[in-house]
Design goal:
- This protein is of the alpha/beta class.
- The chain has a single domain, classed as TIM Barrel (Alpha-Beta Barrel).
- It is built from 13 helices and twelve strands.
- The strands form three sheets. Strands 3-4-5-8-9-10-11-12 form an eight-stranded parallel β-sheet. The protein has a two-stranded antiparallel ribbon with strand order 1-2. A two-stranded antiparallel sheet has the order 6-7.
- Helix 2 packs parallel to helix 12 and helix 5 packs across helix 6.
- The structure holds NADP nicotinamide-adenine-dinucleotide phosphate.
């Protein structure tokens, strides 16, 4: 990095009225493991910026411990140390998960929690308002309408510019659209070669003009490296094309829908460079049929 914005332009996809790189970066991996390496993660973020990535996903609850904001701070510090980055990228965060003793995960979708969590995220990220704030997961103990009303209020208060929902089903999406209208721009659900059940949700997103942010697009942070062992067509086409199965997976996801934006996680420069190169891997109709059949 030489202090300038020397990036290539990646193809873009719509996120409401925003335009972001067709491949984003999931930041969870930067800090989710004990003893995470801040400097290495920072280099991965800079490699993503160099490669043209303009969408980064984090959450207040990501990190190895019960402390909040570890991941948000690691990401924003890496972005701040790359001149001009914050003027060009969209940082998305999430609230609604809580962390407790022994780093256990809980959910709190109450209006009071979301109102506080969004303000704390904005403060940590040093942003006047959050470009994309996502409900991390519906809380079964709280009326979903209450959570949506809280997000609507955050938009009305100017704390949040655009809203996303995550881990939702079609009925919850319909309710989100009803309460949030045009402020809702994205759904973040799991989608990968080993988790394909969200295909109908992708079609729903297309129909409503929403982005589908595919989390865990390589099978999740613990399984991603073994993708070639679990998905044989991905491994075969990878060999035929002389690329990694992970790159094939991201190219396959991009081909699934113009609404889909994969957000692969990476803590190493090599991972970032390999997956971002999927924008140049055009799969043939025959290859796509083989991959679609490899469920
Ligand atoms: N909304 C939700 O509930 C939810 C849940 C889970 C995740 N997410 C979001 O989705 C993002 C991605 O999910 P994820 O991190 O769980 O899973 P993932 O993207 O499927 O896998 C991430 C792992 O893939 C490895 N990797 C990346 N590119 C690679 C390549 N080309 N070759 C080999 N390995 C490669 C990375 O390794 P290295 O670390 O070694 O680079 C990392 O450990 C998260 O960062 C987070 O932002 C959201």
């Amino acid at each position: 990095m030489d202090g300038g914005w020397k990036v290539r332009e990646l193809p873009t996809r719509r996120l409401g009225d925003l335009s972001v790189s067709a491949i984003g970066m999931g930041a969870m991996t930067l800090t989710q493991v004990e003893g995470f390496d801040v400097a290495r993660g920072g280099r991965a973020v800079h490699a993503a910026l160099d490669a043209g990535v303009t969408f980064f996903d984090t959450a207040d609850s990501y990190g190895p411990s019960e402390a909040y904001g570890v991941n948000e701070l690691a990401l924003i510090n890496a972005l701040r140390s790359y001149p001009g980055a914050l003027d060009r990228v969209v940082v998305a965060t999430k609230g609604g998960h809580t962390r407790h003793e022994n780093a256990s995960w809980w959910i709190d979708g109450s209006a009071a929690h979301l109102a506080r969590a969004a303000r704390e995220s904005a403060s940590r990220l040093g942003l006047d308002s959050l470009p994309l704030y996502q409900l991390h997961r519906p809380d079964p103990k709280v009326d979903y309408a209450e959570s949506m009303g809280a997000l609507r209020q955050l938009v009305d208060d100017g704390i949040v510019q655009h809203v996303g929902v995550s881990n939702v089903n079609p009925a919850q999406l319909a309710q989100s659209l009803h309460v949030l209208g045009g402020a809702l721009v994205s759904v973040q659900n799991e989608y990968s070669p080993v988790a394909r059940s969200e295909a109908p949700m992708i079609a729903l997103c297309e129909r409503h003009g929403l982005a589908f942010l595919a989390w865990g697009p390589l099978g999740g942070m613990r399984a991603a490296k073994g993708l070639g062992q679990t998905s044989s067509a991905f491994a075969e086409i990878a060999v035929e094309r002389g690329v990694s199965p992970q790159r094939v997976a991201i190219a396959w996801a991009l081909a699934a829908s113009p609404a889909l934006i994969p957000i692969p996680g990476a803590s190493r420069v090599e991972s970032v460079l390999d997956t971002v190169a999927a924008v140049d891997l055009e799969l043939t109709p025959d290859e796509l049929r083989r991959l679609d059949g490899d469920a």
